[in-house]
């Protein structure tokens, strides 16, 4: 399993990825097996620290991602945007099917206990702050950090965490870089994470 796989609108999920994906539940959602195990440990430690974290989203099929894409475009158009503007706005925080990290089983959208959808201010509450300090210990990174939008192509998403393995997560977090920068500078050393 390539835990450092880069997936975005320019680098879609490779054909056959889902054929080899072993899914397991964590927090009530499906994830790639090793990711689920790490997430279960993260959730357990958060709970023991008095932090309740809700898993909002995990693995998504292409069909489900397509439904989310169309729903978001329709929402924007319902607010008066034309189709092209709605597509552009949707693309700031949602990926097309085949281009979403959720299709890898390695990504989790996380929220406060009881939340049923993403929270734009998640980084300001106790749960978001706890994750920013502790997620790398479990192999997770904040995938779309603030001030990296020009590199990732996605707006700041304080709820979107991605499993990359412990050592790469520690380097990415400590260095204040994003996955794209890590892959550019460190990929040869950490390809076997």
UniProtKB/TrEMBL annotation:
Organism for this UniProt entry: Ruminococcus albus
What is one process in the GO biological process aspect for this record? proteolysis
Which parts of the sequence belong to the D-alanyl-D-alanine carboxypeptidase-like core domain?
Answer: 32-165
Q: Name one Pfam family in it.
A: VanY
Please state what the protein is called: D-alanyl-D-alanine carboxypeptidase
Q: Which UniProt keywords apply?
A: Carboxypeptidase, Hydrolase, Protease
A molecular function (GO) held by this record is:
carboxypeptidase activity
The lineage is: Bacteria, Bacillati, Bacillota, Clostridia, Eubacteriales
Where would you find the membrane-spanning parts of this chain? none
